[in-house]
Amino acid sequence: MKTPFLTKEKAEEIISKYKTPFHIYDEKGICGNAKEFIDSFSWNKGFREYFAVKATPNPYILNLLKSLGCGVDCSSLTELMLVKELGFSGDEIMFSSNETPDEEFILAKQLGAIINLDDITLIPYLKKACGIPKKICLRYNPGGDFKINNTIMGNPSDAKYGLTRAQLSEAIKILKEEGVEEFGIHSFLASNTLTNDYYPTLAKVIFSAVKELTEEFNVKFTFVNLSGGVGIPYLPDAPKNDIKIISENVKKVYDEILASNGITPAIYTELGRYMLAPFGGLVTTAIHEKHIYKEYIGVDASAANLMRPAIYGAYHHITVLGKENEECNHTYDIVGSLCENSDKFAIDRKLPKIEIGDILFIHDTGAHGYSMGYNYNGKLRSAEIILQPNGEFKLIRRAETPSDYFATLDIYPEFEKYNKKK
Asked: Domains of the chain, with CATH numbers?
């Protein structure tokens, strides 16, 4: 079972002020998890978590993580603009993008961000756009199959990201001639892994490349970025990663391959899901029921609020608030109102009997939940709310209104009435 951090009583209190659907986040849980994660890597001087902004791009949460010492990983112009306004700068920003336009490189360099190049052809492109910085990162794709304990975890050769091993050598040679003084290396080989072996296995691949490149070109690697990929258990009975064991095993590989050879780069990570997903939930109300070939419960949220089940078939646990201890003796499809048959939060899910007006808590939406929302069918994106440690709640993003939806149609006079600020 999964226990929601929100009670029915607190949900009703919030709903009396902000109607459903909305995403809510647990500040106490976020801070506790972040502190535990950062502490587990304290053995590494210079360790930093660069939170993946794309996972949850909310100013309140980004400021919260900033106060705990986290940096940010950005991948677009607007993400760079967002963190700039929040006071992030310099090495606090990792800019990891692909197929990157000039304007994004230009702003990243102006902010002093660490630029993570996805391809060797971007070197002359970056030079022309804004010049090559003194510190730069290269994204590594080792190709082939990525295996852990003989299990294939991913297929890097099918991924569009990163440089080959041969290209790494060529890129470092070119960049050294361009005056680069500090290098970093980055790699991401698997997503949402539930094994304590992922980071250590990945680390061995990257650390080995760093050792070889250091010896080959006599360059300085100041950091190694393990990126993301450490997952969370969406299923209630799935195993949970032990971050302390993961860190200990990364240290063993670090000491064996790097430190023993006098190479001591900082370790960086770029987690989003692990940092936030368990500490967010989508709160929605049952508004309809339908009895045909299956039993359906229609809610006021839809895939526009949480895309993962519709596009990945992803599992998100559901709790009917106030009925946590009741027997799950009814089978439902929990659906939204989009004109798509994939708009389902759950299929053939065993739940307590649901009545109109019941409040459903959809778990693990703290990352890649709100941020993946969209406006299909003219649906408006929901509010975001933070539940604070003292039990109070605060609006951290208002819900969209029709004015927001029609804002880009302000070129038409008939839509002016929607664009007037109230």
From this structure: 27-275 (3.20.20.10), 278-409 (2.40.37.10)
How far, in Å, CA of 130 to CA of 124, rounded?
Answer: 10
Instruction: Give the distance between the most distant pair of CA atoms in the chain.
Output: 70
Task: Answer yes or no: is pLDDT of 149 > 70.
Answer: no
Distances 318 to 22, 33, 140, 217, 365 between C-alpha atoms, Å: 15, 22, 38, 54, 11
The first and second tokens of residue 69, run together, are 């010492």
Q: Is 392 helix (H, G, I), strand (E, B) or coil?
A: coil
For residues 161 and 152, what is the distance between their CA atoms, to the nearest angstrom?
A: 18
268, 9 Cβ separation under 8 angstroms:
no
Q: Write out pLDDT tens, residues 273-319.
A: 999 999 999 999 999 999 999 999 999 999 999 999 999 999 999 99
Banded model confidence at residue 419, pLDDT cuts 50, 70, 90 = confident
End-to-end CA distance of the chain: 45
Which of 268, 225, 75, 266 has the alpha carbon at shortest distance from 139?
Answer: 225
The phi, psi pair for 295, rounded to 5°, reads -95, 125
- Answer yes or no: are the C-beta atoms of 1 and 326 closer than 8 Å: no
Q: DSSP H helical segments within 198-258, as ranges?
A: 198-217, 243-257
pLDDT digits (tens, 9 = 90+) for 110-145: 999 999 999 999 999 999 999 999 999 999 999 867
